[in-house]
Amino acid sequence: MNMNLTPKQLKILQLIRDSRVRRGFSPTMQEIADDLGVSKVTVFEHVEALIKKGALVREPNKARSLSIADGIAVPDEDRPLRYPLVGKIAAGYPIEKLQDDDELDVMDLLGPRVGQVGSTFALRVEGDSMRDEGILDGDYVIVERRESARNGERVVALLPDGQTTLKTLYKESDHIRLQPANPDFEPIIVKDCQIQGVVQGVLRRY
């Protein structure tokens, strides 16, 4: 994003983006002020500047109506994760050691692909509805921010009742089926839902 944003303006964009992903609506000016430790007036000034720069859109006379402008990718904080990739492991014969300078770049593996408009966020999984896809309670899913998905993709979906769920998406004749990966759970059938992202990977800590 090349808009000459100040650090606080970038943080405001991140707060608005994250709130819309997690809660389905934007934070209030006071909530942003509390998070940044500044006055509400200061937040208002930054928001007005972001609107003028084309980074934010606001619906008039509507509360919590701030949203990121179309085509604007809000970068996450730069926290590269790279580990030495020293070899492969198999339940069989030993495999040849890799070169010492090889690395596993987690950002490259799970972060946004080149040319993507969106960015990436993580969610902690609660429950076992996606168990048979290898997504377990307590895992972390790495999600690419997207507003659309193809059939068969695992999505984070905001339901009409305001709840968010992680399921596999199937667009059918007159409805959308959000399919769990556990026979103990029933599919969620809705006329429409808001796609908030598509799962790119799963992280598990032992």
Architecture blueprint of SSEs:
Layout: H1 7-23, H2 29-36, H3 40-52, E1 56-57, E2 67-68, E3 82-84, E4 103-105, H4 106-110, E5 120-124, E6 140-144, E7 154-158, E8 164-171, E9 176-179, E10 188-190, E11 194-203
Antiparallel strand pairs: 1-2, 3-4, 5-6, 6-11, 7-8, 7-11, 8-9, 9-10
Detailed description of the structure:
- 21% of the residues lie in helices and 24% in strands.
- The chain is of the alpha+beta class.
- The chain folds into 2 domains: 7-68, Arc Repressor Mutant, subunit A, CATH 1.10.10; 116-203, Umud Fragment, subunit A.
- The two termini are 37 Å apart.
- The relative contact order is 0.13.
- The mean pLDDT is 80.
Secondary-structure class: alpha+beta
Radius of gyration: 20 Å
H-E string: HHHEEEEHEEEEEEE
Could you say how many structural domains there are in total? Answer: 2
- End-to-end CA span: 37 Å
- From the coordinates shown, what is the CATH architecture of the largest domain? Ribbon
Largest sheet: 7 strands, antiparallel
Full CATH superfamily name of the largest domain? Umud Fragment, subunit A
Unreliable residue stretches: none
Could you tell me the strand content as a percent range? 15-25%
Number of helix segments? 4
Query: Briefly, what CATH class of the largest domain?
Result: Mainly Beta
Strand order of the largest sheet: 5-6-11-7-8-9-10
Mean pLDDT: 80
Proportion of residues in helical segments: 10-25%
Q: What fold name goes in the CATH topology slot of the largest domain?
A: Umud Fragment, subunit A
Q: What is the tally of beta strands?
A: 11
What gross morphology would you assign?
globular
